[in-house]
Design goal:
The chain has about 240 residues and is an alpha/beta fold. It has a domain of about 70 residues. The strands form two sheets. The chain has a six-stranded mixed beta sheet, sandwiched between helices. Helix 3 packs parallel to helix 5 and helix 4 packs across helix 5. The longest helix has 16 residues.
Length: about 240
């Protein structure tokens, strides 16, 4: 079942066109990686999907019961955000505020959801710790738990492994894959084409060359072969 269908999108801001004629769809359970050169429009596409930036033309259609507000979002962290002085539990629980409807206070089911998602991410024992005292990998797990409190059908992850060491990077990729195997649709923006084809079911490559389709077709395509060669990687 289609969850997001983008038809003939033209992306840009302040009437500056970045990308035109973009067509792709995300079905339930997909793992879509969005890749491309720096400045190709990945961040603008992310903001458009989230409803923060309107497309210059074209449309985004949503599956039943979905909207931009029904996407759990893990953004790239800034240095200021990494130093945020709140407990792990407070940050995870704040994800419940992103769901529709006014909340003057948290309901018992919100607290249960936060506890469940901390367990899910393996950070329940860190619940009382200050977020800024955690390692980069632990902070990303906290933010994933927060995103899951916001929405559990679709997660949009923006460069979720930036700044992490290789071991923690692989742990994050495996964690994200496990969420996808549970049935959560993943949309991940990545600069790492090699890892994208390792984990994704579908690839959207944007920029001077545009490709959308299954990962195996991307690996065989001219644009896929070129960018995988540039990275010196490929499929194992």
């Amino acid at each position: 079942m289609a969850q997001i269908i983008c038809r003939d999108l033209t992306l840009g801001y302040d009437n500056e066109v970045i990308l035109t004629g973009l067509d792709f769809r995300v079905d339930e359970g997909d793992y879509l990686c969005i890749v491309g050169e720096n400045g190709s429009g990945k961040s603008t596409l992310m903001k458009t999907i989230l409803g923060l930036t309107p497309p210059l033309s074209g449309s985004i259609e949503w599956g039943e019961g979905l909207s931009a507000h029904a996407i759990g979002y893990l953004p790239q962290q800034t240095l200021v955000q990494r130093d945020f002085p709140a407990s792990v539990r407070e940050i995870v629980l704040s994800g419940c505020q992103n769901r529709p409807g006014f909340r003057a206070f948290y309901k018992p089911e919100d607290r249960q959801k936060a506890e469940r998602n901390m367990e899910r991410m393996g950070i329940a024992d860190l619940s009382k710790r200050c977020y800024r005292d955690l390692s980069g990998g632990q902070q990303q797990r906290v933010l994933l738990a927060r995103a899951l409190c916001s929405a559990e059908k679709v997660l949009l992850l923006d460069e979720p492994v930036t700044g992490l060491d290789p071991k923690i990077t692989q742990e994050m990729y495996e964690l994200i894959r496990s969420l996808n195997e549970e049935g959560i649709t993943i949309i991940m923006i990545s600069h790492d084409v090699d890892e994208a084809v390792r984990y994704a079911s579908h690839i959207l490559h944007i920029g001077k060359h545009v490709f959308f389709g299954p990962r195996d077709e991307y690996i065989r395509s001219d644009v896929g072969k070129y960018f995988l060669m540039q990275e010196g990687g490929g499929e194992e």
